[in-house]
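Late entry, 2-acetamido-2-deoxy-beta-D-glucopyranose complex.
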Amino acid sequence: MKILPVRLIVLFIFFSFCCFNSFCLAANVTYDHRSLIIDGRRKLFLSASIHYPRSVPAMWPELIQAAKEGGLNTIESYVFWSGHELSPGKYSFEGRYDLVKFVKTVQQAGMYMLLRIGPFVAAEYNYGGVPVWLHYIPGSVFRSYSKPFMVENEYQWYEQFYKGGKEYAMWAASMAVSQNTGVPWIMCQQYDAPDPVIDTCNSFYCDQFTPHSSKMPKIWTENWPGWFKKFGAPDPHRPHQDVAFSVARFIQKGGSVHNYYMYHGGTNFGRTSGDFVTTSYDYDAPIDEYGLPRNPKWGHLKELHEAIMLCEGVLLNSDPINLSLGPSQEADVYADSSGACAAFLSNTDNATDTTVVFRNVSYFLPAWSVSILSDCKNVVFNTAKSDSSADEGSKALQWDVFKEMTGIWGEANFVKSGLVDHLNTTKDTTDYLWYTTSIIFSEDEEFLRTGSQPVLLIESKGHTLHAFINQELVQGNSTYSTGTLVFSFTALIPLKAGKNKIDLLSMTVGLPSAGPFYEWTGTGLTSVKIKGFNNRTLDFSSYNWTYKIGVQGEDLRIYNPDNLTNVNWTPTSEPPKNQPLTWYKAVVNEPVGDEPIGLDMLHMGKGQAWLNGEPIGRYWDKRSSIDDHCVQECDYRGTFNQQKCLTGSGEPTQRWYHVPRSWFKPSGNILVIFEEKGGDPTRIRFSRRNISSICGLVAADEDGNESSNSNATIHLQCPKNRSISTVKFASFGTPTGKCGSFRMGDCHDPNSTSFVEKVCLNKNKCAIELTETNFNKGLCPDATKTLAVEVTCS
Ligand SMILES: *[C@@H]1O[C@H](CO)[C@@H](O)[C@H](O)[C@H]1NC(C)=O
Ligand SMILES: *[C@@H]1O[C@H](CO)[C@@H](O)[C@H](O)[C@H]1NC(C)=O
Ligand SMILES: *[C@@H]1O[C@H](CO)[C@@H](O)[C@H](O)[C@H]1NC(C)=O
Ligand SMILES: *[C@@H]1O[C@H](CO)[C@@H](O)[C@H](O)[C@H]1NC(C)=O
Ligand SMILES: *[C@@H]1O[C@H](CO)[C@@H](O)[C@H](O)[C@H]1NC(C)=O
Ligand SMILES: *[C@@H]1O[C@H](CO)[C@@H](O)[C@H](O)[C@H]1NC(C)=O
Ligand SMILES: *[C@@H]1O[C@H](CO)[C@@H](O)[C@H](O)[C@H]1NC(C)=O
Ligand SMILES: *[C@@H]1O[C@H](CO)[C@@H](O)[C@H](O)[C@H]1NC(C)=O
Ligand SMILES: *[C@@H]1O[C@H](CO)[C@@H](O)[C@H](O)[C@H]1NC(C)=O
Ligand SMILES: *[C@@H]1O[C@H](CO)[C@@H](O)[C@H](O)[C@H]1NC(C)=O
Ligand SMILES: *[C@@H]1O[C@H](CO)[C@@H](O)[C@H](O)[C@H]1NC(C)=O
Ligand SMILES: *[C@@H]1O[C@H](CO)[C@@H](O)[C@H](O)[C@H]1NC(C)=O
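Prediction complete; structure with ligand written out below:
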């Protein structure tokens, strides 16, 4: 974990577009204490972070549409400098980095855009999104008053570490304002941002946040609806009821700009992830890595957004009046001169459900929840209401093989006495650096006579290591660290009389993306010793070492279809298993259908993968520890933190790797894998992200008070071009079990199935409203009733 529970940002501009037919007008954007103001009108902004390089252009229109359908009106993204300036002065705005196209796509959807320009972004991105070459420009100190590096993000906490830190932050603010962009600037987590720059909140909860000036609106730039994953760690999840609770509390307490970081997390394609961050950047976000709505989260938040938007006018034209309704219960009431009224009733008790009385009417408030009353009478939404629409959950490929050299291939880069810093040497042009040497033993060594095995001892600054003795991979006790990047490796090694070759492959797994002076964090080996020569320990750290940057196949770009013939591939019927340093390639067909596609790498070790030269990313079988504090069920109630709802103990952190459909051609697709330590390629499979079955579960109104509550609703939606073909299960009453294994309870309305069939069959999507006319609500009056539904799409 990071030093700070916070991440990311900072300077950001607010862009807006007003599009009428084919011409666009820039709007006048200002603010007051209540909200941002566009062309003289206050406006609520509900925003979604979608990072353009973490998906592909072919996905952008659908992702943005899914955010719009999810009830949002704004898209937010960082700008990723390292992807735009590959070497000094050499700019790129193509493919996944086509920022202009991304922004235009947002505009075409009729949405607003929040642009966080960085240049430092953190974002769990390689090197914090700053180009690595910048570090090598003389005089450059990142995030400081240093000429080659002057603009900032989420800075205040870091001021203490840098000489002139405060002056630097103030310089950044006035530099930004002087650009006269015509839109307001904000600084995230900069609580003394100078006027007119607005300071904003990043956290799991921001209801208690107030900007430093009473003239500024209350803005939440990062609400984390989940968390990112690191190789070797379990899976974080944030319950949808808690996400909704945090948003409703923020609006209740006067917030008017809210952004989900992330709404679609996406994929860290290629070598773009930060240190140890998985290739998947799913984030447990409302839209999953593959671009599909993650339910119940997406649907639940959609209903919340619609409820908030119903109140937009009165919310923005008044200031709240708060009333206590109990020790942990309160109401905030917004009323304007036109007679409009909206109220938020909250119960922040984390265990006890209660009934409160507000304006002479009783309202049932589940623990840790907020009810929204759009007219101060009727509940249009409660954040804990359970509406879930959970979704459930080829033939073997023909592989050609190319064996990578162990150790130096081609000409060595250099020979040097002592161990060099890895990053200083590779400059991050590759993950790989070979450290090689050899050592000669005479036959009178004790261990050769007794047959005892010497021990290799290596110290490394990180990130990982594969050690080869006489071309054989040796099993170390640890090849990466579990905490800081530094680790110690020990292994019994088979040495022989005469010359022994020692080839050590040091690897980075994404560079640190934040932390004081993070760009100075070294990597690579610091000490290499062998214990056991006539009972002595031999330290050969300062020996002459021969170095080679990268591996051959990568250098020849044999993953590019045009460069495949740069090496001789051997066709196989049974590809070799558990072979380190092996390239595999196969011709693959695009899986049928139009669902998103994942590559199952469960049985592979560690390496990288490409399709048609497009970088799928790093894969790794690194598992989380079995004593990670994982949970079977997660209680949404109570203060959330990223350690609360973990799953996947003892399992590989990432099994499925997203391969965008737009990367496939009609035929002749080439999949290339570079396996570093050994795996079983016969078990690599493409799999369609399956949504054959969809479910929904919703509780009937707990207090039975028809006038004060809305009717609960289940929303079901099949993938594009598919429709609901059967209703596998439908029961209003007391059903039990989970999606895929629902069972009828003692109480069951026999008309449930026919009703759901009537509303849903042969439709792409349907909404099942739990009303008196649709279901027999009077059935078994003492039971707490729910409606459970499972349908299949085809
Ligand atoms: C923008 O709006 C503000 C107030 O809403 C107003 O004072 C200002 O004159 C407007 N600017 C332009 C250029 O229209
Ligand atoms: C309630 O309102 C009063 C006056 O407007 C304010 O001082 C107080 O901070 C509010 N309390 C809460 C919990 O928001
Ligand atoms: C609540 O009820 C009392 C007594 O019946 C009545 O005097 C009062 O006006 C009512 N308040 C509201 C807001 O309806
Ligand atoms: C797809 O669904 C089928 C049948 O429900 C299941 O056997 C298969 O494992 C699913 N595949 C994935 C990738 O979830
Ligand atoms: C591996 O061995 C070294 C040296 O004995 C030790 O310092 C390190 O903690 C060990 N690592 C693990 C994961 O056991
Ligand atoms: C990288 O090289 C620079 C300049 O040669 C040196 O100052 C710095 O200490 C090196 N970094 C590490 C981690 O060795
Ligand atoms: C090396 O150590 C072993 C056991 O500790 C001992 O039996 C052996 O005599 C020692 N050999 C030498 C050459 O000191
Ligand atoms: C290391 O290399 C240098 C120059 O190549 C050579 O002069 C020196 O003898 C070597 N040292 C060892 C210990 O091999
Ligand atoms: C690999 O292919 C690219 C074009 O895709 C070409 O520019 C490059 O020269 C090739 N490299 C080698 C080593 O053949
Ligand atoms: C609930 O609140 C109590 C009292 O504030 C606290 O001690 C407890 O840890 C909380 N429980 C959860 C699950 O957050
Ligand atoms: C709930 O449904 C009934 C029809 O069964 C309708 O009369 C009522 O207005 C609905 N309530 C809300 C809050 O939508
Ligand atoms: C089921 O529907 C039929 C016809 O609409 C109706 O007569 C019957 O009362 C319903 N049963 C229940 C349990 O609601």
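Residues 1-25, 387-393, 703-708 have pLDDT under 50 and may be disordered. Will revisit in the morning.
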